[in-house]
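[09:14] KT: can someone run the structure on this one? pasting the chain below
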Amino acid sequence: MNRDLRKTVIAGNWKMNMLASDVETFASGLTSLISGFKSWCDVVICTPFVNLPAAAEAFKGSDVGVGAQNMSQFESGAYTGEVSTAQLSDVGTEYVIIGHSERRQYFGETDKSVNEKLVACLKSPLVPIVCVGETLSERETGITFDLVAMQVKAALFSVSASDMRRTIIAYEPVWAIGTGKTATPEDAQEVCKAIRKVIEGLYDKATADAVTIQYGGSMNDKNAKELLAQPDIDGGLIGGASLKPDSFAVIVNAANQ
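[09:31] RB: done, structure tokens below
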């Protein structure tokens, strides 16, 4: 992390877990554990759509922001099952995950749709968390850096430098999500550093230095401190470990170094 240049952001992704009735208890537990942590990082909980109003209410006045896990690239219309940026903002959402690997793998999201969603998001007040990363086979064949660079460039097509500065990038090696496997801190740093170099090439060094890059591959309460000590890892996109307030609080506290 380099807090002199950019924000540290710890975001929990609940995926398809938790009920609206669970949110208040979770929020009470988490906020009591991280009181005063706001000075060194921003904290976000990304919930399923149906939990967003409850989360916005439960975290109101706290140091925890609320995020969605997906959004539509369309403003309104006949798109059954989709949710627009305006609808998200209307219920108190502040962040949104775009292009998570599970959306790409299970629901057919492409680099093109990720770019369309990012462009739409940047027209709204929402802060985007854009995910990129490689599968195990892609890593084993040695194309990690080329693939991730392509995903970054495709996602950022037509995005201005000023909008880039409010966009968060999450590097999530697909082979480390939900498997218990984690890239070594050195491996994760190497890819996050490469992502920053891609952004520098697209814009300039000042813009690249200002962008928050998270690590999103099974960061947990045991490995967070070592991962967050890397200079180009500015936070985490946390899956399973974000479902328990005590585990998530340890990760937030690990940003205090």
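[09:33] KT: thanks! The first strand starts at residue 9 and ends at 13.
[09:34] RB: yep, looked fine to me
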